[in-house]
Specification:
By secondary structure, this protein is an alpha+beta fold. The protein has a 17-stranded mixed sheet that branches. The N and C termini lie close together (about 5 Å).
Length: about 350
């Protein structure tokens, strides 16, 4: 797991980004007035905050409902057979074969109320005109159908790609309640470059709720060669994380894009008061095995706290000849960021142990 996290940080070093040129949105940054000791404590506090947010997620109604439905304990799903039976049996009523046959989910052909019988271990369907409602037990041991999934609306749009019509989602609205409390919902709208030979999505706007967190995902084509995306995660009670990314391409022949056709990638990651900004020159992707010197020269990843720069991330060999991500502080000193993420990973494993068990 530590190696996995280290690879993630290397990946972050390569793609985390904010343009070296002036940003389109002006932000005020200052030279830090804190000491390196204070900066280190602020980094540690940020990791502690993320641990707290993951604890909030684990203890939330959504995660608890999911754990109970799966009968999940330390990575083992004990209700898998029961869930498989419900899914297989509902296939007899829902016309899902049309998705493969016609590249289309026919929402209105499937409207109705589907009710599970624990006694008969089967579904019954009653017709309604405008929704798909699925009533089932929230756990294998429940006799009542205390979980209600409602597919409120769904629309699609026909796009032509690779010699056939595909009906891509245009809008969707659905939710899940357990014992009258919302567990999950999704509301989204999507548009595509319908006239293009490669009709890629050009606007994505989705909001997900997984109680108590709200997740917003947006993506836009700014121009034929510039794209951006944003993800925000918040529980409206102090846990807030955002990620912005944008990418510039050399051309707009989407069918024939290669990784070497990227001009630059930019992202901004923010959790609470900490911000990681960086930049990657797309030319780096043309190297089969770039050296650390090349990676560091073609990327720029800066760490801020309360809009004050406290250091930058670089890739270098450790004493064990392993590639490691180091933070270089403003006074020139540096340390392996493993100092922070090692205890973080250990603590997260302990927090999620009831769900996932041992990670090794």
């Amino acid at each position: 797991m530590k190696n996995l996290f280290n690879y993630f940080l290397i990946f972050l070093l390569i793609i985390s980004s904010c343009k070296k040129e002036d940003d389109s949105v002006t932000t005020t940054t200052t030279t830090t007035s804190t000491t390196v000791t204070q900066d280190k404590q602020n980094i540690s506090n940020t990791f502690t905050s993320m641990e707290g947010c993951i604890t909030t997620l684990k203890n939330g109604y959504g995660a608890t409902a999911l754990k109970n439905f799966l009968n999940l304990n330390q990575g083992e799903v004990y209700s898998e057979d029961w869930i498989d039976d419900m899914v297989e049996n509902i296939d007899d009523l829902l016309n899902l074969d049309a998705i493969d046959d016609n590249n289309k989910f026919d929402f209105y052909a499937n409207t109705g109320t589907y009710t599970w019988s624990q006694t008969n271990q089967d579904w019954t369907k009653t017709n309604n005109s405008n929704k798909i409602i699925i009533r089932f037990p929230a756990t294998e041991w429940n006799q009542s159908n205390d979980a209600v999934f409602t597919f409120h609306t769904y629309t699609d749009v026909s796009v032509f790609y690779d010699g056939e019509n595909i009906f891509a989602p245009k809008s969707v609205s659905a939710d899940l309640y357990v014992s009258g409390t919302k567990v999950f919902d999704i509301n989204g709208t999507y548009s595509y470059d319908v006239g293009n030979s490669t009709p890629i999505p050009i606007n994505i706007n989705t909001t997900l709720t997984f109680n108590p967190f709200t997740i917003s995902v947006t993506g836009n084509r700014i121009s034929s060669k510039v794209f951006e995306a944003d993800i925000s995660i918040s529980d409206n009670s102090g846990c807030s994380t955002t990620l912005h990314a944008d990418i510039i391409l050399t051309h707009d022949d989407y069918e024939n894009l290669e990784e070497t056709d990227i001009v630059e990638i930019n992202t901004i990651f923010i959790h609470q008061n900490m911000k990681i900004k960086g930049y990657m020159d797309g030319s780096l992707l043309g190297y089969d095995d770039p050296s650390n010197t090349q990676i560091n020269a073609m990327t720029d990843v800066d760490v801020y706290y309360s809009n004050s720069k406290i250091g930058e991330l670089i890739l270098q060999l450790s004493s064990n000849d392993d590639n490691k991500v180091y933070i270089v502080y403003n006074n020139g000193s540096s340390e392996d960021v493993e100092t922070y993420y090692d205890p973080f990973i250990t603590n997260i494993e302990q927090i999620l142990f009831p769900f996932l068990g041992d990670w090794d």
